[in-house]
Prior knowledge:
With 327 residues, the chain is mainly alpha-helical. The protein folds into 2 domains: 2-181 and 292-322, HUPs (Rossmann fold); 209-287, Tyrosyl-Transfer RNA Synthetase (Orthogonal Bundle). 55% of the residues lie in helices and 7% in strands. The strands form 2 sheets. It has a 3-stranded parallel sheet with strand order 1-2-3. A two-stranded parallel ribbon has the order 4-5. Helix 4 packs across helix 7, helix 10 (235-248) packs across helix 11 and helix 10 packs across helix 12 (264-290). The longest helix has 30 residues, at 293-322. It is globular and about 70 Å long. Ligand 1 is lined by residues 4-8, 16-17, 20-21, 39, 42, 129, 132-133, 141, 143-144, 146-147, 181-183, 192-193. It is found in: Cytoplasm. L-tryptophan binds at residue 132. Its EC number is 6.1.1.2. Belongs to the class-I aminoacyl-tRNA synthetase family.
Amino acid sequence: MRIFSGIQPTGPMHIGNYLGAVSQWLELQKQHECFFCVVDLHAITVPQNPKELELATRNKVIELLATGISPEKCALFVQSQVPEHTELAWILNTMTPLGELERMTQFKDKAKKQKTEVFAGLFNYPVLMASDILLYKTQAVPVGQDQAQHLELTRTLAKKFNSRFGETFVEPKTILKKEGARIMSLKEPRKKMSKSDKPDSYLGIFEEPESMKKKIMAATTDTGKEIKFDEKKKPGISNLLTIYSLFSKEPMQKAEKKFQKKDYAFLKKSLAALLTQKLEPLRKKKRELDSRELYVKEILRQGQNRASSIAKATMQDVREKIGLLQS
Length: 327
Ligand code: TYM
């Protein structure tokens, strides 16, 4: 299968990104043809400081490498270095009904959070995302739950284009994890964990253990004392249990049993200890990579080359199909 997925450069990688998306990428890269992309052009749909954006993009690549994304097994690249993404986005924009974009819940949420003006790029964001995916004739896209609606739009646009201009794009399927597709905020466990909320609501994968422990100990829990998985009645405890179960690779039932007669503080302390232990090798790898600027550049150059050769061929086909004059 050909796989494509992306992550925004801004903000630290948090355990929602890792458990919902990146942990799937790590499995899929073992057996499939994978393209993983740091989507800097998506990040600028809200205002960014140029110097910080550049640093964040490089840092996100390093974070992905440190989690185990392997340049030998996949193409790892930066979106803006393959300009065909934006060319296809323009073309797909000309066939995207406004109504489809108005329905997007992520746009509504982000527009609400945005303190300054809301720009057209934020509204058209899902079209750029569809272009990222369709450009590579992607068959499957591993993401968290919050991206599922964008994937539906991607399939709609593929169908529209194919029926108007002939078979061109593949309709990609969405791959969601059974558990971990929606990790919740530590502070408001009925909302998803998000990097645009306050730092005490998320756990960074590369965060120092002390800071992580503080946040976990201060996480919102539920009324009652019992430790059991029940998303409706116990969203806070269920979220902590999910994170525990995924990082320990113990099934939920086993995790529940382990904490059956214990109190909330014990669960929190155990989770902090588990994360400290599991994430230490990743932190170490990141520290090593931080100083290897040339190595990281070379990986991105190779990723760009692999992505470009497919992107160029797709765009040539698309240009011919829609009647753009060939040079
Ligand atoms: P981004 O950068 O917000 O998040 C990267 C990935 O992490 C997942 N994720 C979560 N999963 C579980 N629980 C959470 N709380 C959580 N928060 C985030 C996201 O679902 C995502 O898979 N629009 C995308 C980036 C993108 C993309 C693409 C993805 C651009 N083009 C093409 C796939 C294919 C985004 O902003 O992800």
